[in-house]
Amino acid sequence: MKKxxxxxxxxxxxxxxxxxxxxxxxLLMLFLFKYIxxxxxxxxxxxxxxxxxxYASATNVAMALPLAILLSSIMTFGSLxxxxxxxxxxxxxxxxxxxxxxxxxxxxILSVSAFLFSDYMLPVANLKMGxxxxxxxxxxxxxxxxxxxxxxxxxGYSLRVKKKDSDGQTLHNLIIYDHNTSNGSVLMAQKGRMxxxxxxxxxxxxxxxxxxYEETPGDGANYNQRQxxxxxxxxxxxxxxxxxxFKMQRTDENLFKSNYAMLNLKxxxxxxDSFNVKIDSxxxxxxKDIKMFYDPINPPLKKEQPIKPAAIKEYKxxxxxxxxxxxxxxxxxxxxxxxxxxxxIVNKRTFDDENEDRVRGFMIEFHKKFxxxxxxxxxxxxxxxxxxxxxxxxxxxxxxxSVLFFLVYHIVSTIGEKSVKEGTLSPMLGMWLAIITLTxxxxxxxxxxxxxxxxxxxxxxxxxxxKLIPKKKKLSE
Length: 477
Description:
With about 475 residues, the chain is α+β, with helices and mostly antiparallel strands. It has helices at about 1-40, 45-60, 60-80, 85-90, 95-135, 265-285, 285-290, 325-390, 395-420, 425-430, 435-450, 460-475, and strands spanning about 155-165, 170-180, 185-195, 200-215, 230-240.
């Protein structure tokens, strides 16, 4: 048994590691394609991109791990069946369930690890990636000077260079528009050289052989203070630009900590209970907030004895209780109070809807931490018997079959999660919908693999069709 267990474990370990990293690589490429416009041309240091990819890899584990388990289990038992090693194991009196036991233990350990990862490490990774991605997307593009194009990246300035030498620092025929002053100024230079200070916070342009035009405001009422245009010629001058705005500014991570995906189980329970208390207190105060808009019927407005509630039924119209000269005023007051009551109720309902949405969000993340672990076990019990039935190893048919089953799982899971967000399903049912749907399939495939079913045997269906065709010919004759 030890040799059989070691054989099965070795057959599973290699494809699992390979498929896990392949899936992680594909998901990382999809992440880069999604945010490629936010990363290019902003002058990020290499470690910023590496840090972002590291956090993105951690967040992709929830999708990569179940798919890798499904694919590797199909490949393992498919390869054992294709090489008749599974037949030899069964001929030795070892059932399929016993042969699967070492992998059941391994996948169980992976499931528990996935739960601990999703509870302790994944919220931190989501927090780090969320804050870093926010800063990356809000980062300005790096300051670049292209020939013949006006650059307005620096606030308050527009700069154009007609020609730039191959060294990237020597410039010719520069025009700089300064919009910081009330009337603005224009600077033109035949030649210039640019460099950055040691702290990389300031861009310095050393200009030569140029002229600056400035326009001063004037007072039309006073002849001596009319608007004037001044021209200054220079041999050499310096123009400095502040580049601190192009440096990446990190946002405080505490601003993102209340997001659903950035909380562990304990924090999710705390926030869920807090919002439930808000909902309950809102409902309890609803009567108190609208009570002020209602007046008791007794005493009536008429100058008669107080009317008992039982006697009100004798009146055909409630307005009979009000004097005729006061009815118009009473109707207007009633309408205004109805509007006020409606506003209070609408505000209460809006408050409840917003808080219920937050509670559903917390419950979605709460159940996700458990469904990740259970999905690893479920997809293993689908993939292992499926590989034993298919009897095909490698990256051909197993990849196609595993992707199809994983798509079914992912689609059902997404539908359930969306239904929970919309409030049409309870969080318990919606988040476990994919598990509930695919569990009978796992039991069915395990049973079929145990009894050596020919469910996916193409030769069996060919023989079955050959037997049907002659019968049809005889019937036609």
